[in-house]
Design a protein that fits this description.
Keywords: Lyase, Metal-binding
Protein name: Class II aldolase/adducin family protein
Largest sheet: 7 strands, antiparallel
Shape: globular
Distance between the termini: 43 Å
Number of strands: 7
Number of helices: 6
Strand order of the largest sheet: 4-3-2-1-5-7-6
Strand content: 15-25%
Organism: Pseudomonas ulcerans
Structural class: alpha+beta
Pfam families: Aldolase_II
Order of helices and strands: HEEEEHEHHEEHH
Oligomer: single chain
């Protein structure tokens, strides 16, 4: 007799999250998209609920899920004060973008370098044309103390189509309407774009794409 698994079962959701989280962490490590201490965290919003699962990428509890309500008052699982603090910023992103399913924060070296240099990431590398038009950018937020939500929310409102933001003097947050593996791949593409843009700057001025480049590129990605 086959036992059917209910995908809405909380235990199944946690187990699937931790499995996907482990795969996401390996992707980040493989693509060298983490800082030396592997700091960062990933969250997943539970469908139709004001709840999220979140886990840290480093430390003794790496990959162990904590379940929180959006009010941050009720939680289950391993939850440090640092993780609760950053979870508040994840919640602010989910509230501002209700369609978002997953959020990732890292200290990825090149994206963080852009944030520390006070520079938004503009689409000079082709990887960004999949998520941005040629006249858009990954915005730089104003500075805020640690995980202050206000600067990131302000950037989301000013750049309603942006899939990420660079928290000034800190590092990137990225999000998507898909699962945490898709959000992780987005972050990796952004980090590679930041790296290539930095390398290009050593040779001269990174060149912008011509008008209409993003639309033409997307046409090329659509299967006939």
């Amino acid at each position: 007799m086959t036992t059917l698994i209910d995908p809405r079962d909380p235990l199944f959701i946690v187990q699937q999250f931790e499995k996907d989280f482990a795969s996401a962490r390996q992707l980040l490590l493989h693509h060298q998209a983490l800082s030396a201490n592997q700091a960062g965290n990933i969250s997943l919003r539970l469908p139709g609920e004001e709840q999220l699962l979140i886990a840290t990428l480093n430390g003794p509890d790496a990959g162990t899920a904590a379940l929180l309500d959006f009010d941050l008052q009720r939680s289950q699982g391993s939850l440090t004060e640092n993780l609760r603090e950053v979870a508040a910023l994840h919640v602010a992103i989910y509230r501002e973008r209700p369609q978002v399913r997953s959020v990732i924060h890292t200290h990825s070296p090149y994206l963080s370098a852009f944030a520390i240099a006070g520079r938004p990431l503009r689409p000079h590398a082709s990887q960004l044309l999949g998520v941005l038009d040629e006249d858009q950018e990954i915005p730089l937020t104003a500075w805020g103390p640690r995980y202050s939500a206000e600067p990131v929310v302000a950037a989301l409102r000013e750049h309603p189509r942006a899939p990420a933001a660079l928290l000034a003097n800190h590092g990137p947050f990225a999000w998507s309407e898909r699962d945490l593996l898709a959000t992780t791949r987005l972050l990796i593409n952004l980090e590679e774009s930041a790296h290539l843009t930095w390398l290009a700057a050593q040779l001269g001025t990174p060149q912008p794409f011509p008008a209409g480049a993003a639309a033409l590129s997307r046409q090329g990605w659509v299967a006939p």
